[in-house]
Amino acid sequence: MTGILAFSLASAEGLPRSALELVAAAEQLREELGDGIVQVALLGPDAASYAETLIHHGADEVLVASSPELQSYKTELILAVLETAIEQVSPAVILFPADTVGGEVAPRLAYRLGVGIVTDCVGFEVEPPPSSPPKLGGKEGGQSLGGERGGGCIRWLRPVYGGKAMAYMVAKGPLQIATFRQRAFEPLPEDTSRQGKVQALQVELEPALAQVSLVEEVREEVEGISLDEAEIVIGGGRGMGGPESFSELETLAEILRGAVGSSRPPADSGWVPHAKLIGQTGKILSPSLYIAIGISGAPQHMAGISAARTIVAINKDEDAPIFKVAHLGVVDDWRQVIPALIRACRELVGD
Ligand SMILES: Cc1cc2nc3c(=O)[nH]c(=O)nc-3n(C[C@H](O)[C@H](O)[C@H](O)COP(=O)(O)OP(=O)(O)OC[C@H]3O[C@@H](n4cnc5c(N)ncnc54)[C@H](O)[C@@H]3O)c2cc1C
Fold first, then answer.
1. 262 lines ligand 1 (CB under 6 A)
2. Residues in a beta bridge with 40
3. Atom of ligand 1 nearest to the CA of 238
4. Same structural domain for residues 68 and 168?
5. Same domain, 242 and 201
6. Residues of the domain holding 106
7. C-beta separation of 313 from 290 below 8 A
8. Are residues 158 and 242 in the same domain?
């Protein structure tokens, strides 16, 4: 049976939402391959306490390694656990979140296993299995999963050229590794009647193996929903004119239960904290809705938001490049539009 293994690192703060998103992605993949089992390698200081949650959201089997040593940047220890999990369950596909941990661990794992990796994915499709055995290095270069058990070739979808285009990628080899952007998949609804298997991974962790340790973590205090997790993101650009204007965006975000981000000029000018920067050198997001206000739509900015399902642009220049990618656009001064939008949204939510 094709094992689809999702990786998750639970921190002291809890299980990241990406864990549930990856289980949903694995479940969809299992369905499209027509075969398989959804497994999770769950690591972290208190990992065992989250195993049931993963089963209730679609996992069939959870392989747990609980240890205070298993935390961000302890890449070598995480890899040791993963290698044990892989030996134990021989998965055909391994999914990682495209976050700091996934970005550190997944490429190293691919190198160690000598297999292909596709990073930053937002989707996939499964080609029907060929009638004759697939040719490695052929036109597509891929290999079908599951062989005679009926699996197909997975084509991983990811943004390319700074988000200006989407491309399907195929990785060679019977084992595939992919990292997924946040919010590319919605978690499956919770079903507390679901049953699954929980197995402890027996790994001797040698703390000395870790080459890097976290000395100090400096965090911005986030009030409300964090930018990474927000389903609705409101981005302000140079056209906002100054720091005080961002309070209007915060008001709108509060009503819509979203989060505020920015393009580079507001972050560089200190109008907003640097953690709000969206783009090539900032956060890469995949919200359901992105409202870009006073943002021209430079490629470096769009690289961070091209996977948004719907983009709405408010800009006073009708020739602004953002209108080429926006699904909806308002050509006007934001000072006219935002107060009216706030009023309308308040009425809608009965605030
Ligand atoms: C190596 C490199 C990396 C970069 N990385 C990033 C990155 O990660 N993220 C990023 O954002 N940028 C990045 N940039 C910068 C990027 O190239 C653009 O300069 C930047 O995105 C422009 O920001 P903006 O759209 O807010 O400003 P502008 O391009 O100046 O656009 C402002 C817009 O606001 C509109 N406007 C003005 N007043 C109003 C008003 N009252 N109402 C409505 N609309 C109004 C204008 O018509 C204009 O379209 C990078 C650049 C380089 C070279």
1. no
2. 6, 62
3. 26
4. yes
5. no
6. 3-209
7. no
8. no
